[in-house]
Structure formats: structure tokens, C-alpha cells
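for the writeup, i need someone to sanity check this before i put it in the appendix. the sequnce is what the collaborator sent (i think, or maybe the updated version? ugh). structure was predicted straight from it, no edits. if anything looks off just tell me and ill rerun, i have time this weekend
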Amino acid sequence: MENLLEQIKGYKEEIAATQQNGAAALETFRIRFLGTKGIVKTLFAEMKNVPAEEKKAFGAILNEFKQFAEDKYEQWKAGLESTEVESGTAFDYTLPGDPAPMGSRHPISLVKNDIIAIFRRLGFSVAEGPEIEDDFHNFTALNLPEHHPARDMQDTFYLHQNPDWLLRTHTSNVQVREMEKGKLPIRVICPGRVYRNETISARAHCFFHQVEGLYIDEHVSFADLKQTLYFFVQELFGNNIRIRFRPSYFPFTEPSAEMDISCLLCHGKGCNVCKHTGWVEILGCGMVHPQVLENCGIDSNKYTGFAFGMGIERIAMLKYQINDLRLFSENDIRFLQQFTGSF
């Protein structure tokens, strides 16, 4: 105990000799003497080694030392605050807070919301479905049976095999689930994220976003499809945009087509973006294949329909003249700040 008393005496002399020397020194003093691992705590921990008959007297000495250190700290702190007020460096807590910076929606969300708003005006509702899907809803129901060569165009990420579960390659799986409900007519758009085993580059990524549409009713024709897409493109890009359809192939539609618009960057004159053709492909479309209708329990002799699908990134790149697909997913604040104020 005599050794502890000598230590306390030395610490008191050190505290008494300590001079006020700024906020940093004050914090150092607090940590050294009053912190959770400071000298006061350490001395109190020594109580277990003091003989029982001396604990009361030693406890009184410790409490007096603790009070001495705390008083020195509070005195120093008060003097420091007084000095700050006199010098004008003290913080005025009555001042209004700094304004929070205005955020913005992601460009993908902006374009998705624009697309949804346009098709809502045509009577389309929004349908969503799972991103982890079974083989039937992602491939087989869409006239893509096992070993079909068109599956190679949608190489994807499998999570389980036999049975096959995978990350969906398109939002067509949502269309299948809507058709299986049997509530006709159907007029839906299906936005969402999809995945494909692609090499990441300025023009491709292993995940991206789609909006697909489906309309099934009696007497639906290709003319209905064309007029729907004409309206959509002109609402999104303006009335001066030129549009063309090219024959194409998709297993789930027949006949099928790709739809191009005149390049927004060169206005149809030819540039690197449009590969000097003056045209940019924005979506694929066609009449729903009768086999797809039958796979989903819909009478193909009574009902017809059309479907279309587009990549939201492709639309956003054209709308905002962005030349690198990777910018959408890199979370670069310098890129995202350009859309502040957009809703």
C-alpha cells in the first residue's frame, strides 16, 4: 500500500504542475488520468490487493485523488472555453445547420420511370417477378427447349442444376407468370434487372436492366404493335425522330423485328455510335409465338398478342449521350452529380 500512496503523491504533483496548453493537451490529460484505461481506473483496480483493514482509508485517498484530477480537468476546460469566446474562435451553437446537399435519382431510374409513365398512358400496368428463376419460366415456356441453339445467346449464371435454377436472362419470365394466371386480356410492362455471362466493356455488362411489354387479347395485330412503339418513341425522344423495323428472329415471337431509331448524336448522318449507318437499334419485338401461348394455357386460336423488350441502359445512353455502360454501376459521384435536380 505504501507503494500505491507514493504513486498517488507523484501523480498529484504532476497534475498540480500541469499548465493549460490548448484543446489537444486537455484531451491528452483526460485520456491519461480519467479515461477508461487511465490512471484513476488503474488505481481503483488495485483495491483488490489492499488488506481488508486498510481498504476504507485507501478508498478515501483514491476518491480524493479522483476528485482532484476531475477538478483540474474542469478548471482547465472552463478556462479554454473562456479563451475561445474572448478570441472569437468558439463555435456558436445558435447558428443554423449546414444545408444537406440535394441528391438525385440514378439515371437508370429516371429513364425507367419515364418509360413506365408513357406506357401507363396506353393502359399498361406494371408487373414484377423473381430475379432467381427456374428453367421453365426463363427458357422452356418461351419456346426455348433444352439444347436449343438460341440459348447460347443468353448464357447465364446457374445457381443449381437438376433442377436448373438461374439468374434470369430477361424479364420475359414475368410475362410467362402473368400469362399463367389466365386473366385475359393482358397488358403489362415488366421492368427489372437481368443477368448474362458477358465480358464487361463499354458496351456490355454481366447485369443490366430491361423493360419488356406484353399485350394479349382477341384480334391483336402487328399494326397494333407498330403504333404502340411509334407512340412510345416519339413521346420519349420527340416527334422528329425517324423509326424503322427490320425483320429478325426470336424463338418466342413470330414474326419478329428489331426497331431502330435515327441516331440522336449525328442526326442520321453517321458516326461511331451508330457505326456510320445513321441508325441505332433500341429494342426487339414481334407477335407472341402460338406455342408460347399454348405453353401458358392460352388458346392460340382465339387470342393473339405482341411483345417487346428493351435495355434501359441503351435508352439512357442515347437520351443522355453517355458513351460507357460501366458508368451506370461504378458509383462515381462525379458522374451521378450531373443528374442532380432530375426527378
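The first strand starts at residue 125 and ends at 126. The mean pLDDT is 87.
thx in advance!!
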